[in-house]
Amino acid sequence: MSKDLFSHHAQNYAAFRPTYPKKLYDFIFSRVKTFDEAWDAGTGNGQVARDLAKRFKKVSATDISAKQIENAFDAENIFYHQIGEKTNFGTKTFDLICVAQAIHWFDRPKFYAEVKRVAKPGANLAVWGYSLLGITPEIDSLVKDFYTSIIGSYWDGERKLIDEHYKTIAFPFQEIETPEFSFSFQWTLPELQGYLNTWSAVQKFILANTLNPVEKLIDQIKPLWKSEKMEIRFPLFLRLGDV
Fold first, then answer.
1. Under a CB-based contact definition with an 8 Å cutoff, are residues 57 and 38 in contact?
2. Structural domain for 125, as ranges
3. pLDDT per residue over 2-12, tens digit each?
């Protein structure tokens, strides 16, 4: 069963989670045969649904968190559903099925069975995620220590799949070779702080200790923050398959 670790900070999630680059979508869309309907599974704040809605006539977006859906992007051709891996979608409905930064939380055998049921012949499944950010060597060292030593024990076991870039998950589809991707943003220090606060391990640390460890990290980073905005880089990884 999927885990819901994001409902209680859904507004921050919607505000601070990074969006994905056009190059990623262009590569995925180059494999799509028709653009009638897409499914964004584990939609979270609906950021992927929003981008899919620019190309597809209809987007069905699912999440187990009502709070996430309440804070999700709105568009007339996006239809949100509070459900998990098992759906009531019709057989052979979708041209493309996407899971962004979420499949590590899924019951994957159940989800894959559903994908095979609801995908049109020739449809694609795109699963992607991003791992630890990079800024400068000095800041990166602080963030890595925070990630492993301060909040490391608060990460769920599924986080390891992100660190492994999803290479170790089963993917029972005809896989398509994909290039390496990355994406970057110009962020202020408060924007970085907002993003770090969306980490599930941070939220679990706060609940357990009644203090926010991100505040101390930001104090350590401040002397190293050399301009109003600095470039934040994320490694981005994709697994793509014909269903």
1. no
2. 7-242
3. 544 444 444 55
